[in-house]
Amino acid sequence: MTLRRFAATFLIATTCFSGAAQAEDLSDALISVYSENPRLLAERARLREIDESYVQARAQGRFSVSGSASVTQAWGRFPNAGEIVPGATGSLSIDGVPKQAGLQIIQPLYQGGRVNALKQQTKLGVLAARENLRAQENALFLAAANAYVDVRRDEEAARIRRNNVSVLSRQLEAATARFDVGQGTRTDVAQSRSRMALSEAGLAQAEAQLASSRATYVRLVGRMPNLLTPPPKFALPDGVLAAIAAARENNPQLIGAYFNEAAGRAAINVAKASGRPTISLSGNLARQRDQLSNISAVDSAAITAQVTIPLYSGGANRSRVRQAEHAKTRLAFETRDAEMAIDESVTQIWAQLTAARSTLNAVRRQEEAADIALEGVTLEQSVGTRDQLDVLNAEQEALNAKLSVLDAERNVDAATFSLLSVIGVFDAEGIRLPVETYDKNANLDIIRYKGLTEAVDTYVPEFAQRIGRQMPNIPREATRAIQKTYADSPIEQGVDGVVSLSAAGTQGLKWGVDTVTGQSADYDDLRGVDLTSIQIEPISPPSVPRYDPLIDADNDGQIDEIHLPTDSPVD
């Protein structure tokens, strides 16, 4: 199949985020979104929720231990007492409180490949969920950035319209004064009053739009906007084809679709395992006391090997396999549809960006010409070659040109943000946002062994700290042979040595359990799936591909090619 190397094909260059005292820039707004937006926090919680499915899949291949205990009040009547008490005759009635306790250990040995397939399926599900989190981050950054430029545009539009109302108010006063001295007409006054009312209506609409934009900003960022500075400029791909190629490699929704399709392939193996034999080994310990018999105490132990072979399930197993195959086919078609949708989105956004840039250049020329025309018409009115209506029309044209420039500047910024978002780099990592990024791997690293070695992880380091305080002094700045670092004090060096040994022992225990339960090949952490940050200036080709699904998607040391989509949506 065709290698899909998600390497960065373009670089993003940002200007410095700076501003006056108490001013707010785009970086500040996006940091607030990244740190506090409840929608993004919810998506992170969703990822941690999905992480648990991988832990649950691993647990199905490990041994389980269960205990039981019972206390019973019992009564019994024996027609032949001699069976209970030798030499006795007649019947015998007895009562007692039998007690029983037991312990059972079950170790699955073979489950038809279900555990490995389920781990692969859930692992790919975790990777898809990570891409979904990245997609949500891109979407929220896009919405917040659009709200940012909307507020800036609407604040300036309201200022321009207020100034226009002030100018028209003075013109109305001048027209009224000329009419009072007989140098003007009632028509001039009426025209000025009409334009004044129109300008006031426009100001009311502008203030309403500003209030709406501020409300959106507060919802996304979490606070009122304050002295917003111009957004930074981002370097974009050279052309639409380069933008499409970058989106094909980096768009999180598309990469997530690839992972979902691969998970669909693993789901087929999960379904097939239900029709295969299973082998398990169980051990039982039991203790019985105060039984209603002449044997009052019984201790027993048993080891059982059990083989279960499905013979007939009414067609359910084959149905589940067919269902999984249909689901895989559906996911394959959905992936192809996502590819075409990404191409469509990039093409449309690129066209909008091109049009917005051309429009901005045109309306800037329009604004310059309208200002010159207004100045000329005003001078001509003063010498009597132009009337009041000419001045009012020139004022309106100048106002419209200024508002058009604001809209065009906003549209260029919005199209730029949209293009970065659909490419998949409008996130904290892609734009080098100065904030501590959320580690998508951390939760899974913590929980993958919880319940198995939780007590060891919790109490061994504390025990090591207590022991370390009693260790004899050793030379200061002594080198730790294991870690090849330096301790700051003899006590710290001793404690760190014990803690390191305890950590090594804990890892050894985890490795041993996984080896016994047949999971040692899946020991490595799920790392390597985070996309490398887009570099900023100076521009240079990236040295590490962002993502290569054919090599090792989860960095577990195993080739994942068998679970990846082929070039055809149907096998």
From TrEMBL:
One of its GO terms (cellular component) is efflux pump complex. The keyword Transport applies. Residues 1-23 form the signal peptide. Its main location: membrane. The keyword Acetylation does not apply. Residues 537-571 are annotated as: Disordered. Keywords: Cell outer membrane, Membrane, Signal, Transmembrane, Transmembrane beta strand, Transport. It holds the Pfam family OEP. SUPFAM superfamilies: Outer membrane efflux proteins (OEP). It is found in: Cell outer membrane. GO terms for molecular function: efflux transmembrane transporter activity; porin activity. Belongs to the outer membrane factor (OMF) (TC 1.B.17) family. PANTHER family: OUTER MEMBRANE EFFLUX PROTEIN, OUTER MEMBRANE PROTEIN TOLC. This is Membrane protein. It comes from Litorimonas cladophorae.
